[in-house]
Hints:
This protein is an all-beta fold and 558 residues long. Among the domains are: 133 residues, no CATH class; 92 residues, Immunoglobulin-like; 80 residues, Macroglobulin (MG2) domain (Immunoglobulin-like). Helix content is 0%, strand content 52%. It contains no helices and 55 strands. The protein has a 21-stranded mixed sheet that branches. It has an eleven-stranded mixed sheet with strand order 6-5-3-7-10-13-16-19-22-24-26, with no helix packed on it. Strands 43, 44, 46, 47 and 48 form a five-stranded antiparallel sheet that branches. Strand 54 and strand 55 form a beta hairpin. It is flat and about 85 Å long. The N terminus is likely disordered.
Amino acid sequence: MRKHLPYLFFVISPFMIQVSRAQSAGDYRSVAQGNWSSIATWQMFNGTNWVAAVAPPTQLSGVITVRDSVIVTDDDSADQVEVSSTGVLNIQGTLDLFDGPGTDLQCDGRLIVSLGGTLDANDVANVTVVYSSTAEFDIEGGIRTAITFNGTNLQTIHGSYGSGYIGPPITLNNAANLTLTGTVGLSGVNFITGKILSQGNFIIGQYTGSGFTGQGPASFIDGKVVCIVYDSTPAHFNLPMGKGNEYLPLQFFVKVSPNANESGFAVTIQDSALPSFTLGSSLTKASTVRYYNISNPSNTSIDTASLQLSYDATDGVTDPANLRIAKSDTTGGVNNWVDLGGTGSAATNGNITTTVNFTSLGYFALANATGGTNILPVHFISFAAAVNKQAVVLNWKTAGEVNANNYTVERLGTPSNWAAVGTVKVNNKMTENAYSFTDATVQSSASYAYRIREADKDGHFYFSNEVPVRMPGGGKIVVASLYPNPARDVLHYSVTAGANDKITVTVTGTNGKPVLVQHSAANQTVDVVLKKLSSGIYFLNFTNDKTGEMVVKKVVKM
């Protein structure tokens, strides 16, 4: 099979027009919504013109371009499939991909593998599928070919029924990350760049070939991972997990009792405050920076289990010899921390493994042994800044203030250095604490950053995350005109603001997802082209790039 010819682009300000690549005899393109096996769905290029197809495309065809909604219901084959930005490929039967030169399936539109459907690789390991689209990738059936998620904007995989799976490990090459919703089974991930944001259930099984490569501080799983154990064979899950900007890989070892059914153990990292737990005599402090929740929804009987946790500078490990792992125990309706032993591998950054095996699951956290000096600092649950007229109001929440002394509010502005602008007393409670501070010493149109410096009684100190603030200035944003409304093809608008202010207009649907973005100067009439949008209700979000002020208007597209 021949390779694809490159796409050519010519820039004609202010629009970009894509010139189609040259066609070759044997190429196919969809001309209507329909079934893959129906010739009415396709046209074929005869070397000179596009003509009605006399047979549906197969792996012996040239490039197959899906421009409409095409459904695979039979056992079909293909090579060099291109799903355009307007196309939808819905696999309800089997689509068998063959390995020809170049990419075997390139998706810039939407790909659906429905319940009972299969995207197969014809038993060839070199079949390549590249998903570059920001449209949701729906998996309800099975995929037996490797897929590369390659994009510059956030991408999404969604599994509706919990039966969707991708056999070979996926490759993630998207610094804007990949979101997983619903329930999807993956055999692993080859991280090049980007994170998996698991908002649903990331299923990883106990079988040969499941695993991860390339993980690190910028490439890990943030969210829930469900570890599936099939039998009483000892299972070892090496999970490249993290939370926010913290890479915190963990290892979970578990052996279920003989004759136990297939079981799933859900693992998550939490950064919210725990309920109050009682410490045993061997522990003096449990970390509130974060905790780990490992659950056993099927109540499988466990013969033995152990856990290895990682820690970094945010955890406050200063005495690794006296670092321990604590586990929650709610026997008798009382919340207790149980000492599972362990010793930290080093100060500041390292790992620790339980030395006391356990047979029940729950919460796990780093803890300080009696006589130890680990700081395990105050946990910042949240920190936010808001502009209120000509002042900045800061609000933050913390937990674990056993050793806290005070909070200092620091501001970065002009000159470019951090300076204290106020001090707040602490409540010194292990449970959640809320604080507020107002900074009225700010200037119009200025940009700042804020952070909270927490000082312990023993002299150690830690910082919250940093939050940026831009004070309003310049002209107030006003949508002076917006017509016609309802609109059919073109909408005209005019926004008044400061003389040199720039305006960003984001058009969103009723689901809040952007469908169009454009930029313009203030104080002039501008057109926004709605011709390609479906009929319905949309919202225009006008944002002053200089001041951050935003005005929202509703429009109707006919």
